[in-house]
Design a protein that fits this description.
By secondary structure, the protein is of the alpha/beta class. It is built from 16 helices and 14 strands. Helix 5 packs antiparallel against helix 7, helix 10 packs across helix 14 and helix 13 packs across helix 15.
């Protein structure tokens, strides 16, 4: 049985009880892949989790997996202590493959240096999640300068967030120049990684969703949804483009006065010491008199997300940049009609006019136009999009197939390592 060490960007939900922490609603692609690989009985996966308080550091066995932890005191920079911690973990775990989830973290670079120091750098493979070095260039996303420059007591300015992303991006570029193997799933992430390192070995493999989304595959029905309702999965960051949707809403409401937006995440109407971007969103909401048309739902678990997908007339992804949105994948496998910004890797997920609509991310008038087309539902457009979405996504996120692809990648990396290829 092949020994594989996973470097994760968070404590996976399956291990939350072991650490006495609340389950997170992110990272479902890691949980999905872990469960799929467990069924193959071909790999022994140990996991390494970031911990932010020194007294919580520990190692052990839980859910039939050995786990390790490391102190993560910065997302922007790594240090020798972190590298040494990873070296010790590598000595104990003796992995044949080191699978690093995400290029966008400083601890990724630290792990690669640990691998290099131990002479096993060619055993490492990075799964591309979001490319922070590219995202940093899009982070401002047409937010007016007065909000970009604004500083709020106790808050973080937009320009400060850009600087943070740029620092993480420097680590990411260092990592991509060091590593031999990456796993990706879109033309965009391949183009971006190969732009940094032309000699990188790119392996295609899609993601696996959490079980509930397969159980609810194709369950969206036009006759059962809330007509003229829009669901978005994130709103509090400029790159997620909620401001573009707010600019489109007056055009939609003019034709469909009962339009209502449901947004997952914190209620920006009630946040004290608002962040500059939140202040900008509230300014748009006040300017266009949209408050009665918007509801914020708080953090949603997977069951609550499914409920909102089934309720929505349309799922909208207005992001300024994306690789492959997990929320878009979830919406499409359930069958929700979708409208997404043509940015990053989204064009690998939506065939415009066949299973949804794509539009230039900074064109709110076209976003409004396509949402209205779905609301109008001429020639049963919603059912057409729904059926085609389920068929298309089924091919991408098939658990058994993607688990087999991952195993094949592990085998290729391990064999190349034995040959000593760098």
């Amino acid at each position: 049985m092949m020994r594989v060490l996973w470097l994760c960007s968070l404590v996976l939900p399956d291990f939350s009880q072991e650490f006495g922490i609340k389950k997170v609603n992110t990272g479902g692609w890691m949980t999905g892949m872990l469960h799929a690989l467990e069924k193959t009985c071909q790999v022994d996966i140990s996991l390494c989790f970031p911990i932010y308080e020194k007294h919580r550091l520990k190692k052990g066995i839980y859910n039939n997996h050995r786990y390790y932890t490391f102190l993560c005191d910065s997302m922007e920079a790594y240090n020798n202590t972190m590298i040494e911690s990873f070296e010790q973990i590598l000595e104990v775990s003796k992995p044949e493959v080191i699978h690093i989830w995400g290029s966008e973290f400083a601890h990724t670079t630290a792990m690669l240096w640990a691998c290099k120091n131990k002479g096993i750098l060619n055993r490492a493979v990075i799964s591309i999640q979001g490319l922070i070095s590219v995202i940093s260039k899009h982070y401002i996303a047409d937010v007016p300068e007065k909000y970009r420059m604004l500083r709020v007591a106790g808050g973080t300015g937009i320009d400060e967030m850009v600087t943070s992303c740029e620092k993480r991006g420097n680590c990411e570029i260092e990592s991509l120049k060091m590593v031999r193997h990456v796993i990706g799933r879109t033309d965009w992430d391949r183009a971006c990684t190969e732009a940094v390192n032309a000699n990188i070995c790119y392996h295609f493999c899609d993601e696996i969703l959490r079980d509930i989304f397969y159980e609810c595959k194709g369950k969206w029905k036009y006759n059962e949804c809330e007509k003229y309702s829009i669901f978005v999965s994130q709103a509090a960051s400029p790159i997620k483009g909620f401001h573009y949707l707010l600019q489109a809403l007056p055009l939609i409401i003019r034709k469909y006065p009962n339009t209502h937006v449901y947004a997952a995440g914190r209620n920006i109407f009630n946040i004290e010491n608002k962040q500059p971007y939140i202040m900008y969103l509230n300014q748009l909401i006040d300017e266009f008199e949209l408050k009665e048309h918007i509801s914020f739902l708080g953090r949603l678990n997977e069951e609550q997300m499914v409920k909102q997908y089934l309720k929505a007339n349309v799922f909208v992804l207005p992001s300024a940049i994306e690789n492959s949105s997990n929320s878009l994948n979830e919406a499409k496998i359930i069958g929700v009609p979708t409208v997404g910004a043509f940015t990053g890797g989204t064009s690998n997920r939506v065939v415009s006019g066949k299973d949804g609509f794509l539009y230039p991310h900074n064109e709110p008038a076209l976003l409004a136009f396509y949402i209205c087309k779905i609301f109008r539902n001429e020639d049963d457009l919603c059912t057409k999009f729904s059926t085609n979405s389920v068929q298309q996504m089924t091919k991408f996120i098939e658990p058994k197939l993607n688990a087999e692809r991952t195993l094949l990648i592990y085998e290729l990396v391990a064999k190349e390592s034995v040959r000593g290829t760098v």
